[in-house]
Automatic annotation (TrEMBL):
Keywords: Hydrolase, Metal-binding, Protease. It comes from Parasedimentitalea maritima. InterPro entries: Cyt/Met_Dipeptidase (IPR051458), Peptidase_M20 (IPR002933). This is M20/M25/M40 family metallo-hydrolase. One of its GO terms (molecular function) is peptidase activity. GO terms for biological process: proteolysis.
Length: 459
């Protein structure tokens, strides 16, 4: 039996409709981790969808209570063929963001997999259900063809990624032995271009916090008091303007990374420029001396996620008492995470904004990670993907988005290689989330090829 047989088998799985049926079954679990009412469904996804499938593959599964009361259950599985063989750890998350049911286009329903042309619509398709399904199906295919994998596999599936993976780091710390492996190979996030594989070896970090200015009790008539009372929205706007200039360039020295070396720059500049259909990249936005790819993969970005003062839906003639902006910094390796908020405090104080309060969001913090591109696993996965598809994958030093990759890279100490199975236009975290059938089909083959290869010898 050959590598080609494994690819053919996974191709049949896709073409014969089993893939669609399996994905539809996963999407039907309403696993919104941001919605406390759905808490029981989080466990059901693991016990009803994941455990039977993993056990059929020969995994020994253990369902764990999350060490953090705010987090959902965690499933681990291990399939040990021979302790002397290399062990691959893989990961997925079965939870999804809120459905936003009312905002989906007519004819679509978040928890029903709906096919339209090359698209399969459903909440959680791209993020992350299709991604772990593809990896499972690829393992199944290699096992069916070869009769064994030729390596050991461990699986972690969490149900709280969309609320910041509470308890995951603590769980990893407590289960280092159980999860001991040689490498993490997992899937989440988008490919840079739908028709070419992407690999990334880390992620930008992220931290969210509120800036609030609460000046007094209640609003006051803007005629009688206008000119007498300080306006919190105006002051907060100036505070924000001191953080970031009008083209989005960060003004706080400690928030500007030191890691954009010539090597990283060269790797980033090999990547295609995002010429995506929507939205168009604003060439005049962000750090002026950098290319757009350097800005998103090699630099930090500051954003206002939401901002209020008064009642925007029903403004009245009054000076508001309070203004609030929810802010976020996405940052790369080379930024000291523990100094992000202290540096902001110092900066605001120096600029006369002592009254502006900083409040870090609970669980809205991901450390940044980045594997050395010279790690042998990078080349190994690259060669395997190239062999299957006939073209070299795009290689990102780190994903622009955030992932709990620090759990694997820092706590478990593993080299981390991510092979994403979605694409940039997938509307993940938005209405009309979908995956492309063509990408899924390609990814099934790539992963079957990769798992086949690992069974013939790891680096
Ligand atoms: Zn997500």
């Amino acid at each position: 039996m050959s590598r080609n047989n494994a690819l053919e088998r996974v191709e049949t799985y896709f073409q014969g409709g089993e893939f669609f049926t399996d994905l539809a079954a996963l999407v039907a679990f309403e696993t919104e981790s941001q919605n406390p009412d759905q808490a029981p469904i989080l466990g059901q996804y693991l016990t009803d969808a994941m455990v039977p499938r993993l056990e059929a593959l020969g995994f020994e599964c253990v369902l764990h209570k999350n060490p953090d009361a705010g987090g959902g259950p965690i499933l681990t599985g291990a399939r040990i063929e021979d302790p002397s063989l290399p062990t691959i750890l893989t990961y997925g998350h079965g939870d999804v963001v809120l459905a936003q049911t009312e905002q989906w286009r007519e004819g679509l329903r978040p928890f029903e997999l709906i096919e339209e042309g090359d698209r399969l619509y459903g909440r959680g398709t791209a993020d992350n259900k299709v991604q772990h399904l593809i990896n499972l199906a690829a393992l199944e295919s290699v096992l069916a063809v070869r009769g064994r994998l030729g390596f050991n596999v461990k699986f972690v599936i969490e149900m709280s990624e969309e609320i910041g993976s509470p308890g995951l780091a603590e769980f990893m710390e407590a289960n280092k032995d159980r999860l001991k492996s040689d490498v993490l190979i997992a899937s989440d996030g988008p490919r840079l271009q739908p028709d070419r594989a992407t690999m990334f070896m880390g992620a930008r970090g992220g931290i969210s916090f509120d800036l609030t200015l609460d000046l007094r009790e209640g609003a006051h008539h803007s005629g009688n008091w206008g000119g007498l009372l300080a306006d919190p929205a105006i002051i907060l706007s100036h505070a924000i303007a001191s953080i970031c200039n009008a083209r989005g360039q960060i003004q706080i020295p400690a928030w500007r990374p030191t890691s954009l070396t010539d090597d990283i720059r060269a790797a980033i500049n090999e990547l295609p420029v995002n010429d995506g259909n929507d939205p168009k990249v604003d060439e005049d936005w962000g750090e002026e001396s950098l290319t757009p790819n350097e800005r998103v993969y090699g630099w930090n970005s500051f954003a206002i996620l939401a901002m209020t003062s008064g009642v925007p839906e029903a403004p009245v003639n009054a000076i508001a008492a309070k203004a609030r902006a929810t802010c976020q910094l996405r940052y790369v390796v080379g930024t000291k995470p523990e100094d992000i908020l202290p540096a902001l405090r110092r900066h605001l104080d120096q600029h006369g904004f002592q009254q502006v309060q900083i409040e870090q969001h609970e669980r809205a913090f991901f450390p940044a990670t980045r594997l050395d591109p010279a790690n042998p696993w990078v080349k190994y996965v690259e060669d395997s993907l190239t062999r299957t598809s006939g073209q070299k994958p795009h290689i990102l030093p780190n994903l622009a988005g955030s992932l709990p990759n620090d759990c694997f890279a820092d706590i478990l100490g593993l080299p981390t290689v991510w092979v994403p199975h979605s694409y940039l236009g997938c509307s993940q975290h938005a209405p009309n989330e979908h995956v492309l059938k063509s990408v899924c089909q390609d990814s099934l083959r790539l992963m079957a090829g990769l798992f086949w290869d690992i069974g013939t010898g790891a680096p």
